[in-house]
Amino acid sequence: MATDPLEEVKALDATLTSIETVLDLDRMRRQVAELERQAAAPDLWDDQVRAQQITTRLSVLQSDIARVEALRRRLDDLPVLYELAEAEADEVVRAEADAELADLHRLVGEFEVRTLLSGKYDERQALVTINSQAGGVDAADWAQMLLRLYLRWAERRGYPTDVYDISYAEEAGIKSATFAVKAPFAYGTLTGEHGVHRLVRISPFDNQSRRQTSFAGVDVTPVVEASDHVEIDEGDLRIDIFRSSGPGGQGVNTTDSAVRITHLPTGIVVTCQNERSQLQNKASAMTVLQAKLLERRRAEERDRMQELRGEATSSWGNQIRNYVLHPYQLVKDLRTEVETGNVQAVLDGEIDSFIEAEIRWRQRAAGTG
User: Fold this and answer.
1) What is the CATH number of domain 5-115?
2) Can you tell me the distance from the alpha carbon of 76 to that of 72, in angstroms, rounded to the nearest whole number?
3) Alpha-carbon span 176 to 193, nearest angstrom
4) What is the topology classification, in CATH, of domain 126-368?
């Protein structure tokens, strides 16, 4: 039986109303007014970090308000379009109304997912580290493919990224890479990508063209802010300075500006070599180290709470997604069971359907936990 489009509009209206309630548009408008007042201060850029926080937050709020208001206008106009099509028996107008309804379904669905990001750190920017795992040169190549995937995903969304470090493998690909996604809610959006990604394909590095399975790990942490109180004792650090290197070991610059920091109590090692200046590299490396230490603290707190509740501790290193290029083409998420045969689109950064399904899956799991 065909669905009544006006009933669909009604259901969509209820969803948008709940989104408006969760967002609290009046509160958002008050926040915008206050941030505009702060942004107008003549000494705003004396503190560049704070200025960036204010202007970014203001831009996000203004964008969200405009987006909801535009969706509301379009949704309110839709019943009129259907009534016009009915009254005039106009199939062209009816087709236009159906296309608008389908587009609103998609846009309201996307925005609803954003409102589900209500975790303590979900609003933060994200720090992403990719490591090649089992699979030799194929795994190193796979890690580089994943780096490209996420950078393309961010580019498609207009999210700025900053690559802090790439450690190239000897033959091909990378051993590891660390980069920041500098957009609000990047952490909440990407946290479901945390885990092991498995690739199955005919190895381009095998002269017998055999099928190879390789693995890469993705680690996602929230960027640290001043309120996090991540204290680091300088005496706990070993800082090594070395020359930046590129693919095949070639020197990137002629000065010893790359910085490696080892946090001795935990054994955490971070490297930064993207900047020309040793000081800038050290500052970036400290940012990464603070994020890693914050995530370690959060993991320990999670484990303690699970122990108190008598729950089994889940491993963050679990395999989460398969990417099969041979003998068939399929990308499948092992948690949500979302899949697609368009592997090339996924490798080009089209992963929103996986991300949105995972956010909804996480929300349902939290609700039943």
Assistant:
1) 1.20.58.410
2) 6
3) 16
4) Alpha-Beta Plaits (3.30.70)
Angle at which helix 5-23 crosses helix 48-88, to 10 degrees, equals 160
Report pLDDT digits (tens) over 187-245.
Answer: 999 999 999 999 999 999 888 888 999 999 999 988 877 666 677 888 888 888 887 66
Same fold? 5-115, 126-368? no
Confidence (pTM):
0.74
